[in-house]
Amino acid sequence: MAIKFSRTFLLRKLHQITGIVPLGAFFFVHMFTNSKAMNGEAAFEKAVQELHDTPFLLFIEIFGIFLPLLFHSIYGVIISSEARSNALGYSYARNWFYFFQRATGIFLFVFILFHILNLRFGLIPGLNLTPVAGNADLSFNIIAAEFQIPWVMVFYMLGIAATAWHLAYGIFLFVVDWGIVIGENAQKYTLYACIALAAALFGVGANAAVSFVRPCGLFPQALCEHKSESKPVSKPTAESKRF
Ligand code: HEM
């Protein structure tokens, strides 16, 4: 007997899948690359240059990042506008988690748009106007200058926290919805593991962000390898901020 799936059902499944692969996978790789800033300008810029040298980069960016991101965020906003959260009516943790899943999704729509225009394309008026794309040799100083502006650093910290929660709780919803984790106890421990994953992802991302304004990020500097030619992070000048 042929099984018929409704269009909404298939779109929901595609929405869940795109959140895990490629977007979730991209976030892990992205935070790993950013963490290279712990070891200074030279180490970070070498990593960015290697990314820029990836064959078929534009193809990977369009089909592996931008299109899945566009679909996941637009369909996510549609789902959020339909969802009725019980968070204010009931105090169950799961209702709050569900509410945060949607709230972080809507916030991320704004944050990621800002972030890509800001660093990838250098198109936010009043901030740095040099794109990181095509300028790997300037990438560390571009980001360091941005992150010395307090509101930008706070906005990025919120973006990292929102992504960490959205991805980790999204993994929980995915494994439950796809019937991978079924029993009540198994779901409880999976939820704990996902909360721990959110905390770990936030820790790694926040440490990477701090590494652009303090060598070795939140860790003692003795733990990091700084090449002697690596310049110390300087305060942004009128020219480096390119107003
Ligand atoms: C420590 C914080 C972060 C830093 C320093 C950072 C840095 C960068 C840089 C430099 C680029 C441009 C890459 C290039 O053109 O070579 C970029 C692109 C991007 N970032 Fe981030 N990022 C951070 C946090 C985030 C977060 C929280 C997200 C949320 C998912 C995110 C998602 C993206 C996306 C989707 C792109 C576009 C990818 C592409 O153009 O290939 N980033 N980021």
Structure description:
- The chain has 243 residues and is mainly alpha-helical.
- 67% of the residues lie in helices and 0% in strands.
- The protein has helices at 7-35, 41-52, 57-82, 93-120, 139-147, 150-177, 184-210, 238-241.
- Residues 228-243 have low confidence and may be disordered.
- It binds protoporphyrin IX containing FE.
- Protoporphyrin IX containing FE binds next to α1, α2, α3, α4 and α5.
Helix percent reads 55-70%
Structural class given helices, strands, pairing? mainly alpha
Number of strands: 0
What would you call the shape? globular
The number of domains: 1
CATH superfamily: Fumarate reductase/succinate dehydrogenase, transmembrane subunit
Quick one: biggest sheet? none
Radius of gyration: 20 Å
Write a concise synopsis of the structure shown.
With 243 residues, the chain is mainly α.
Write the layout of secondary structure elements.
Layout: H1 7-35, H2 41-52, H3 57-82, H4 93-120, H5 139-147, H6 150-177, H7 184-210, H8 238-241
Helix pairs in contact: 1-3, 1-6, 1-7, 3-4, 4-6, 6-7
The chain binds protoporphyrin IX containing FE.
What are its keywords?
8 helices, binds protoporphyrin IX containing FE, mainly alpha, 3 helical TM bundles of succinate and fumarate reductases, disordered C terminus, 243 residues
